[in-house]
Amino acid sequence: MNRLSCNFFFFFLIYLLPVLVHAAALDSLKTFIQETRTARATFSQILLDRNSKIIQKSSGIMQFERPNKFRWTYEKPYEQLIVGDGIQVWFYDRDLNQVTIRTLDLAIGSSPAALLAGNSTIEANFSLTEMGQQDQLEWLEASPKNKESTFEFIQLGFSMKGSLKIMVLRDSFGQTTLLTFSNLDKNPNLPASLFHFIPPDGSDVISD
Question: What Pfam families does this protein's entry cite (predicted)?
Fold first, then answer.
């Protein structure tokens, strides 16, 4: 898997202890999906190895339009772009001048992108478990039903007002990623051009 693919599929993670169980986080997730057709937010991302040692820190801007269109722009430490147009997903590494193309189903199947930009049928791809309240956030864990998924679980933290603040993920290699959102804007007007990508001239294009 190339560096950009790793960034995309290793979005999110933190270690959490279950506490009181109730339906607040599940309700927040369903409300978020039902009421949020488009979204824009800045994010910071930390990737940890199996020993909780920081491998990489990055940041950028996340935008999506339901269903299945999204744009993740990594601005630091190096410029990368992930664009989902509803049919394909384009991974662009500016430093390497390399583009990797995957079909939507192959690229995001049971992934964080499926939760954020997918349709409302979450239970079809994920088993959802309430984790209770911690650090003034309501937590929910989503376990992919597809046994071939590259993720063990995804965890989502919502504020008491139902705003998505944190996503967390552990992958099948024991690496964990923490993604923190800020300045989340619900239902902004997003131009259609955001979700289209044309490989730059001279770039190395790879189709999986």
Answer: LolA
